[in-house]
Predict the structure.
Amino acid sequence: MKMVREIFVKSVLNKHKKRDEWFLDDYSLNPYQLCEFGCVYCYIHGSKYGGTKSLAVKVNAPLILQRELRKRAERKEYGFIALGSATEPWQPMEERYQVTRRCLEVIAKFRFPVHCLTKSTLILRDLDLLREIDRKAILPGDLKGLRGVLVTFSFSSLDEKIAKIFEPKAPSPEERLEALWRVKEEGFYAGIAYIPVLPFISDPDEQLEEMIKAAKEFSADYVFVGALTLYGSGKTAYYTILERHFPELLPKYKELFKFNQPNWEYQRRLEKKARELCKKYNVKYRIV
Ligand code: SF4
């Protein structure tokens, strides 16, 4: 088991200069630093934090959040809080620390809407608080038609073997789909982020179709599809795994990732195909 540091932070709520177009959040909140699930493609590997920071829980996050949200609520600066934009809020250590749960209590108290981004089935533990937030949240004026809680489960492939290679410690795709089903049964607004789609592994048309078909079958309200980004030491780590499991793909990746992202035509094809399939299966592409 990895060592977890308990740290105290001075601030925990980040206010964005501009609302995120896809996820609709004006704020983000990460109760943990780094993540136990260890996805090979996780952006944190390549970022400046990946090498220097260690797994940690922000033990005073709920207290600091209370102070920060009180001020924002007094100024009526309501907006979606993305819970888990950089790390998994319901990673295994949350069972012990319950920091995410206590942050949700604060969010409910100050009536902010929340967008939960997760791969974890542990979110099901907190449906009681999410129900309260869904009922009470005050939405920003231009998003009034939406609900107070959005729940998005993320996937890079539906293939259990591929997921085991690239997301070694995360709940399996099947478990995530079942969790989505439960969340939908409870009446929440919920969807799927196929981010990142893995080039030459989970991006062929048939696999995209399987993904969007699964979204329909498990009652997702919306789907996002996004390409892989690789940079810095994250690119090296990803290539090491490719070399071990898919050595024949390395030259193709090197061609596609001359920069941090696949070229524009690749991204355009992915979005076009995803939109076509969403239309075919009658699932909304993106939330709005
Ligand atoms: S679950 Fe998310 S934050 Fe955790 S390692 Fe995977 S991609 Fe990174």
The radius of gyration is 19 Å. The mean pLDDT is 95.
